[in-house]
């Protein structure tokens, strides 16, 4: 693949971009989680841990994008941590978008289609109402 | 236990999980689940949520380095991601109807299999003749070695694709990267050189894990109080591990960890069998 890429500098740039995206995505997510974590510890350090041996699920909150953002808006520690979680999960999904752009630049029809299928599966997973 | 003690112990544990995961090549997620369930008695669903996050963080962090070196076969990864993401979504759906004890037993079995896989002989040779499908899908490529660029071709694309679907289902069901199965598909079925199959597998784990993570996030599997120490700890451990790997050969460590992981796997199966989850 390197050999094919070396003849098109634009595509090599996309590959480099994907590398950067993955790295900075993880770094950003960790920083947000770290900030949220510090606030979380500051607020709750002396309380005893929640009953993690029983599963609460959705009722614990911060399971939707709007809940997470309203949590961040009110400076809620758990909301901020979940925002970091969201950024972490979004990183590989964004990577598929970048791959798609790369294959479009390369005019590789087969791989534009393949990447599009993967993206569709991902979108189905997000918006398909599979949470039940 | 207060939250601060829980967080600090979990942070240290997750650091070790990341370190072990990166030295053995099993990935941090595999160690996080037994750590949370067996040591902290956390519900396995929270453990699965945390392990998925650990897998994504590990995969994305390491993949960025391998892409730069040009070892990762991005086309192959993209093609096989159809199989793993469809599998992962199916796994996340099946998970709702699967009792937690069954999940624990299944996890133990996969753990045993993964431990065995790390000890097997690695495929170093590159094929010179590929199957028809491998040409059609433009999957054949080359990768840099210390003796220069090496061309490789691959075969059994259909078999590889099927094993990848299974890897996706298990990843969605158990919250692990199932790197061992991914490498099995690429190494043993498709005959890809070991270095390419490991890095490409790693590249794919992030997307595979994200496909089921979006479902689990909506179901409330990701608890902030657990996600925070696990994410940071595993990332730190994996980073230390990658630094250590360049300076030492972890062969002896690998054997020790494999024995340890076998014990953990047996305990998961035993507890699952006795309905302790």
TrEMBL record, chain A:
TM stretches of this protein: 21-41, 79-98, 110-130
A Pfam family the protein falls into: DUF1634
Keyword set, alphabetical order: Membrane, Transmembrane, Transmembrane helix
Superkingdom classification of source: Bacteria
UniProt keyword Transmembrane, yes or no: yes
Protein name: Membrane protein
From TrEMBL, chain B:
Keyword Cell inner membrane included in the entry's annotation: no
Main location: membrane
Keyword Cytoplasm: no
Xref: Pfam families: TauE
InterPro entries: TM_pro_TauE-like, TSUP
GO CC annotations on file: plasma membrane
Entry's transmembrane regions: 46-67, 79-97, 103-119, 161-181, 201-218, 225-246, 252-273
Keywords, in A-Z order: Cell membrane, Membrane, Transmembrane, Transmembrane helix, Transport
Entry's localization field: Cell membrane
Family: Belongs to the 4-toluene sulfonate uptake permease (TSUP) (TC 2.A.102) family.
Protein name: Probable membrane transporter protein
């Amino acid at each position: 693949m390197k050999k094919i890429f070396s003849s098109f500098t634009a595509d090599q740039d996309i590959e480099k971009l994907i590398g950067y995206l993955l790295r900075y995505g993880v770094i950003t997510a960790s920083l947000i989680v770290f900030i949220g974590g510090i606030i979380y510890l500051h607020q709750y350090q002396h309380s005893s841990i929640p009953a993690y041996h029983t599963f609460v699920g959705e009722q614990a909150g911060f399971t939707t994008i709007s809940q997470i953002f309203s949590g961040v808006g009110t400076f809620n520690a758990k909301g901020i941590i979940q925002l970091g979680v969201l950024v972490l999960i979004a990183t590989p999904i964004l990577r598929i978008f970048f791959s798609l752009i790369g294959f479009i630049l390369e005019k590789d029809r087969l791989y534009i289609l393949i990447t599009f299928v993967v993206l569709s599966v991902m979108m189905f997973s997000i918006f398909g109402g599979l949470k039940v | 236990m207060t939250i601060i003690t829980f967080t600090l112990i979990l942070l240290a544990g997750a650091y070790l999980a990341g370190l072990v995961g990166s030295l053995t090549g099993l990935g941090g997620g595999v160690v996080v689940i037994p750590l949370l369930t067996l040591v902290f008695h956390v519900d396995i669903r929270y453990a699965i949520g945390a392990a998925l996050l650990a897998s994504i963080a590990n995969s994305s962090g390491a993949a960025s380095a391998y892409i730069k070196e040009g070892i990762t076969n991005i086309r192959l990864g993209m093609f096989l991601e159809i199989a793993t993401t469809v599998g992962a979504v199916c796994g996340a759906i099946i998970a709702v109807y699967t009792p937690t004890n069954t999940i624990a037993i299944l996890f133990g079995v996969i753990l045993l299999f993964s431990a065995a896989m790390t000890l097997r002989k690695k495929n170093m040779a590159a094929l010179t003749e590929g199957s028809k499908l491998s040409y059609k899908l433009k999957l054949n490529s080359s990768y840099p070695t210390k003796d220069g660029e090496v061309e490789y071709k691959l075969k059994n694309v259909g078999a590889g694709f099927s094993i990848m679907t299974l890897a996706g289902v298990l990843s969605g069901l158990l919250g692990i990267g199932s790197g061992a199965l991914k490498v099995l598909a690429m190494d043993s079925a498709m005959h890809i050189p070991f270095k390419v199959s490991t890095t490409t597998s790693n590249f794919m784990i992030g997307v595979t894990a994200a496909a089921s993570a979006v479902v689990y996030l909506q179901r409330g599997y990701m608890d902030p109080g657990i996600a925070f120490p696990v994410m940071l700890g595993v990332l730190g451990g994996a980073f230390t591990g990658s630094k250590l790997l360049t300076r030492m050969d972890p062969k002896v460590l690998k054997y020790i960890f494999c024995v340890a992981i076998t014990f953990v796997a047996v305990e998961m199966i035993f507890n699952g069998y006795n309905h302790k989850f």
